[in-house]
Every structure is written in structure tokens, then in C-alpha cells.
Design brief:
104 residues, mainly alpha, three-stranded antiparallel β-sheet, globular
Length: 104
């Protein structure tokens, strides 16, 4: 079962949906987070499969993933230029808190 940080619903949702006007990015983030939680590893998936799983168009999935990468909410690995990418869902708010705790 996916357990969400309060930050995801209290802050990230408003930021992506309201401020950035990218609701598809929020849906893709949630879906990828759920998939990563199920397998406990990065998610190797095509734009088409993301689109079908979330219920959006392929171009919307591609745009959403691009936005999440830009916002550093996802990281991506590819074995080659044409390979299906593997995405890792990131939680920068946790990483920032952890590094501050380590320094403090």
C-alpha cells in the first residue's frame, strides 16, 4: 500500500496543479510513486504505458514526465538512446531535511 507524505497532498498537489497548471504531472507522479512502492525499485515504463495507466494521452504523459524531471521530482536512466527509460520517484523535501539533519 502506498503511504503518501503529507507534503504530497498539502504542498506538491497545489504546486503542480494550481501554480504550475500541470495536473497531469501530479497524476503521473502519484502513479509512478505507487508503482515504485509496489516493486521497491525504479519503474521501467514507456510513455504509452504511463498514458494508458493514468488515463491521459501519450503526449500529455511525455510532457508530464518532462516537467517532473525538470522539477527534479523524477530521475531517469536509459541503457541506450532508444531503450525504455527507468524512472525513480524522488522526494526532494525529504532529501533536504535529511541533509540538514546530517549537517546539524
Amino acid at each position: 500500500m502506498l503511504v503518501l507524505d503529507n507534503y504530497v497532498t498539502d504542498t506538491l498537489m497545489r504546486d503542480l496543479v494550481g501554480h504550475d497548471r500541470k495536473p497531469a504531472s501530479f497524476l503521473v507522479y502519484l502513479w509512478l510513486a505507487a508503482e515504485q512502492a509496489k516493486t521497491h525499485r525504479e519503474v521501467r515504463v514507456s510513455y504509452q504505458l504511463v498514458a494508458e495507466s493514468v488515463g491521459i494521452s501519450k503526449s500529455s504523459a511525455q510532457s508530464a514526465i518532462g516537467w517532473l524531471l525538470k522539477r527534479k521530482l523524477l530521475s531517469v536512466k536509459k541503457d541506450s538512446v532508444t531503450a525504455t527509460p527507468s524512472y525513480t520517484v524522488r522526494s526532494p523535501w525529504r532529501e533536504t531535511a535529511r541533509s540538514a539533519k546530517d549537517r546539524g
